Amino acid sequence: MVSSTIDHMVAVTAFLAATLIFIGLFNQTIQTAVIYQRHKFTATKASDLLDNMLLSPGIPVNWGQTDANLTGFGLQDPEFTQYKMSPFSLMRLNSAKGTPVFYYKTGLSYSNITVGSKNFLLVSNTSVVDYSLALRLLGINNTYGFQLTMSPIVTVEVTEDNAASPLLLSLNVQGTGFPLANAKITYCLTTVSLGGAYPSFNTNYGTADADEQGSATLVFNEVTDADLSYSLIAYAHLGGLVGVGYYERVSLEEEYVLPLVDSLSEGRILIAHNFDIESSDPPSAEVKYNASFVFLAEDFTMREMPLENSADHVNSGAGHPYQIVNIPTDNPGILIITYRKSANEGGIVMMPWGVSSLAFPVVFGGDPSQQEWVATDMRQVRVGGIAYQAKIALWNLEGYQVVG
Amino acid sequence: MMRTIEVLIVIIIITGAFIGASFFAVLPWPRQVSPVNLRRLAFTTLQMLDSNYDLSRAAFEVDNYTIWSELHVALSASLPPNVIYNLTVYEVRSGTAQLYDPKASISNAESLGSTSDASSYLTASSNVTFNVTPEKIGEQGGGATLYILNCSDANGWWITGYTAQSLAEDLYKLLSPYFVKTVMVQNTDQLRQLIDGIEISGDPKENVENAIIINTFGECVPMPQEYYQGHALANEGYDAGAPSGYGYTRYCYTLGQKTREHNWTWASIVGYPFYYVSNTGVFENEQNGWGIYGMRMTSQGGSRAFLQGLDNQPYVYDSSGVTRDVGVVTLTADSTDYCNYYGIYPSFYQTSTRALSNSIQSDYNLAIGISMFNPPPGNENYNAGAIYRHVFDGSTDVTGSLLALGLTRTPDIRLTGLGLLSYYHPRLYRSEYTAYGTSRLVVLQLGLVGGV
What we know:
The complex is a heterodimer of chains A (404) and B (452). By secondary structure, chain A is of the alpha+beta class. Chain A has a domain at 155-358. Helix content of chain A is 17%, strand content 40%. In chain A, the strands form six sheets. In chain A, strands 1-22-23-5-21 form a five-stranded mixed sheet. In chain A, a hairpin with a 4-residue loop joins strand 6 (155-162) and strand 7. Helices cover 30% and strands 23% of the residues of chain B. With 452 residues, chain B is an alpha+beta fold. Chain B has helices spanning 2-24, 30-33, 38-49, 54-60, 65-78, 164-175, 188-195, 234-237, 249-261, 301-310, 333-342, 359-363, 413-424; strands at 83-92, 100-107, 116-124, 132-134, 145-149, 181-185, 212-215, 220-222, 265-268, 276-278, 295-297, 323-324, 327-331, 349-352, 355-357, 366-371, 373-374, 382-383, 385-390, 401-405, 428-430, 439-448. Chain B has two domains: 34-130 and 437-448, Ribosomal protein S3 C-terminal domain (2-Layer Sandwich); 132-430, Rossmann fold (3-Layer(aba) Sandwich), CATH 3.40.50. Chains A and B meet through helix 1 and strand 22 of A and helix 1, helix 3, helix 4 and helix 5 of B.
């Protein structure tokens, strides 16, 4: 009787223990499978969402060239089909990378994409589309987060090998996976002249071919002054791929003018003194400037478009208002502003009108770094004729924990 | 003891089940769970490579080492380093033999690994021209001549930003393929010839009868000097009794008469039709009320006078208005269809400040041949753009037509083209796209290397 009872108790105990252990084991397997399934769904969603963004121009269709409120999110160029993006719609996306700058004379903050030291794209926060609005318009508010990265496929790196007599510039043309060997290069050297009432500039256009390693050297015998301010813009193209590179040298680093995009629909650009942006407090100092606009023609040469009221001066501090220039075109191009403080000190700054003109990268959206699982997908797209890679990172906000 | 053994047996069975389930329920690799969409990546890569038709050129020049070398470099440069590829060009064949014949292939790996996907892209040969041949308007019935007023001795109004000459040139490019003969009326002397029914070019294909005349001068219409006050035809061009210096409404009446007599289609491209007349010679020192010399205002009486002449009514100076500002209008569904058919795409939305009243239909025996715009609510009795056909009561013959686009400045000549083409509807004969040897299929297969 006693042994039977003991046998019964041992059997029941062992059975219950085994049942609990196996429920846990099976549950772990099932949970892992469910999470994998949800990850796969997130990956599918990422691909769909990327196509939704890239294959729709948004509402209104020309929102990139206006300051209108956005009611449908999409980045496709409304004048084209396929994966061709509007360089202006991308310009209106609030940059997730650059720190916004505040300009007290307008009381506004500006979305900031700055590449190098003198290439700016600062767009008024009243014009940019922020991440939360994009989430709502895409219908994924509180369910998914994303980060969209548009980066140029072809990079053209410019380095100065010799400052003058002659000026030697090395160009290195690289794709994402391989050098763009034997690429054809079209370039524009803009040299700044600091004489006269306002600075002016001269342009020197030319072509070159890259070698098997994607490298080329440009020689400018006419540059004999090592303090001469200049900029170089180079377009490299081969087999349907087009990329842009640029480089500036200035004789005055500390003081310069900054272009701020105030109105996209009117093409209104504010010309500000950098002391007012960087909160510097040195004695005010006048800087004279001269603005011009160039755009890329279909044969990869650059054409200059005159601007009204292009030459003036700005100063920092109270009582010195900013100046305004208007870009009178809906085509992408580059605003080139030469500036001078004295006959020996000056420089040049550039701003793309449409991100593609200087192949500015765009990062828009949230931060994926702290997310448990991030699905990614990519497409090859063209932005204003420049080859870009569009990459999305998508994560689920509803939450699911990892077992183990 | 027996129960314990039974339980142990049960545990062994469940353990076996768990091991078995774990063995068969193999979870996928992370790459399979969250794959890069290689198919879309391949497709967008092909689109990019063909953006300047480089891929199409390579597909048809498979023996050109330079082009294929560039394609190879571009392909390698555009794809991420962990993506391997194979690009193959196929000739598309017809008949029962092998449908796709491989012509050339490039790859950067021996195999594409376990994960790969492909996209295909059809390229067209640059040696093949896909023509669209338009039917000529009226070619079955003697041919219609298009006259475009390009008078060098007249000024335009409400064509801000353009000159009549630049508009005339654009219209010529847009519409001349649809006509047997297109004549640019270079000055008001030639306009006078036209009014008198005399051919201008001497070309046997030119026909003044049933012609279409486009007035590129906006609200203004060129006037030959003979119609000037005191000149030879002043009795057909000037009404001394008209108030406020609007005497040249009489000239508009004459144009209406001639439109009826020759069965013309008179096209007014923008604004209020016949609101001014212009001749930079005889009106050299006179202006239109807005400081534009070489021009005189006829005001609202101009349109009324034209319509009187068109309807063969006696000329009576009538200054009553005939238009209304109706605001934003939209293209009709028919007009939108014609946009697609002819490949002319003006804005769907237009602003009309000079929409003609429907009352002119009963007043002057007019019938609407085609209406281009939907009237906004509350303005159903006004037409922002239409071709009016004049048909006498009891007759079925058309005796003159008027295309009136009562839109605000500046003019969009595509709307004029759209209106005329919608009305005459010439057919387009398109060449065959599926001709043998004109297309090649490019397949790009991508695979991933490295990682899991």
